[in-house]
Amino acid sequence: MQLIDQYLRKINYLRVSVTDRCDLRCVYCMKEKMQFLPRKDILTLEEIERLCDNFIDLGVEKIRLTGGEPLIRKDIIKLIEKLNYKKDKTNLKEITLTTNGTLLKKYAKQLKKNGIERINVSLDTINPEKYNKITRFGNIEKVFDGINESLDEGINIKINTVVIKDFNEDEIEKLINWTDSKRIDLTFIEVMPMEETDVSREYQFISLTEIFDKLNKKYNFKKSDNNTGGPARFYNSDNLSTRIGFISPLTNNFCASCNRVRVSSTGKLFMCLGQNDYVDFRDIMRNDYSDNYIKEKIRFALNIKPKKHDFMIGSKINKYMKRHMNVTGG
Ligand code: SAM
Ligand code: SF4
User: Fold this and answer.
1) Beta-sheet strands, E only, within the chain
2) How many A from CA of 120 to the centre of ligand 2?
3) Most informative mutation of 26, 205, 311 for ligand 1 (most atoms within 8 A of CB)
4) d(CA 263, CA 279)
5) Which residues line ligand 2 (CB under 6 A)?
6) How far is the CA of 329 from the centre of ligand 1 (A)?
7) For residue 84, which phi and psi values (nearest 5 degrees)?
8) pLDDT in tens, 229-244
9) Ligand nearest to the CA of 250
10) The pLDDT of residue 313
């Protein structure tokens, strides 16, 4: 069984936001004062599992848990344990997560035990004061401890860094050297115009295409064949032991090879990160519809998956999404 959308793209990757809440408030992701959803609106772990089961039956091979911060969701390990049980007995081949890393020290062992082999950790700076500022109150030592613990457990880590104008542009090479010394991959990401935070996107955005061109002079990048199936373009360099990735949705569109859809913590299926349309599965599940009906709705959603995202940041035109990134988890 395969899920193919109207543009003949094979969709085999599901990202699930397990909570909209977070223990940090990164300035490009959230407002300082966020209104989080009442718990009754959030899918239960059983509902998440049921939705995943239906996607897996239809051909989904990879599930990424995200948020908000996935590791603050109560009993998240129980969900991972249940999903892990399905691995290799069904279409499911990989479970992974994107985390801010603050709770990794506590959970690394249990994650590894329950089949998590790779994790993306979001870290925009390695400077403790700057980290505290960009996350509004975070303590970077917790993230360093979490990364080290995960590496000790044998979990592969990739660092995701959002490049923010006048904040971490000057740290790019430091981040490259730091990840290189730890032998972990690093991906740079362009700021995307999800719902307004307290600072206008125009003041946060910087083109990664420009940054790539500057870095290329020093690193003489060679395109890596080993792609992770995501939107990042990965490069090797003779000067580095690790790979550097670039995710540049605004300056280098990658929608033609999109293989994913996203479920929000309330059960809305977003077919595209950069569009506002969704199909709501919470009411379907809470009104006792059958799994066959859920599958029918998933196929319907794939038939209306748009060709490409529709966001834009500019001095004259801005096209924002009507939701913050914690709704769908990136
Ligand atoms: N809390 C977890 C974390 O930070 O990794 C998972 C959820 S977070 C929303 C997922 C990713 O989205 C993070 O790498 C974060 O840096 C990124 N992100 C958040 N807001 C963004 C924005 N406006 N543009 C680009 N990336 C963003
Ligand atoms: Fe939380 Fe991740 Fe958003 Fe930062 S990027 S506020 S860690 S959800």
Assistant:
1) 13-17, 62-66, 94-99, 118-122, 156-163, 185-190, 222-223, 233-236, 244-247, 260-263, 268-270, 278-280
2) 13
3) 26
4) 9
5) 22, 24-26, 29-30, 67-69, 100, 122, 325-326
6) 6
7) -60, -35
8) 678 899 999 999 999 9
9) 1
10) 72
175 in Cβ contact with 131 (< 8 Å): no
In angstroms, rounded to a whole number, what is the distance separating the alpha carbons of residues 289 and 90? Answer: 23
Give residue limits of the domains in the chain.
13-328
d(C-alpha 174, C-alpha 158), whole Å: 16
β-sheet bridge partners, residue 236: 222
What local confidence, expressed as pLDDT, does residue 88 receive? 85
Our CA angle for 80, 85, 87, nearest 5°, is: 95
Strand partners, 185: 158
∠ CA 21-321-65, rounded to 5°: 40
Where do we find the tokens 């199936």? Answer: 229
CATH homologous superfamily for the domain 13-328: Aldolase class I (3.20.20.70)
20 CA from centroid of ligand 2 (Å) = 9
What is the tens place of the pLDDT at every residue in 194-236?
A: 887 888 888 888 999 889 999 999 999 999 987 666 788 999 9
Which ligand 2 atom is the nearest neighbour of the CA of 102? Answer: 7
Considering only CA atoms, which of 253, 227, 305, 280 is closest in space to residue 4? 305
Q: Is residue 247 in contact with ligand 1, taking CB distance under 6 Å?
A: no
250, exposed or middle or buried, with CB in 10 Å at 0-12, 13-18, 19+?
buried
Per-residue pLDDT averaged across 250-260, rounded? 84
| Distance in Å, CA 297 to ligand 2 centroid | 30
CA of residue 31 to ligand 2 center, whole Å: 11
> Which residues are CB-neighbours of 158 under 8 A, at least 6 positions away?
118, 119, 120, 121, 184, 185, 186, 187, 245
d(C-alpha 275, C-alpha 98), whole Å: 21
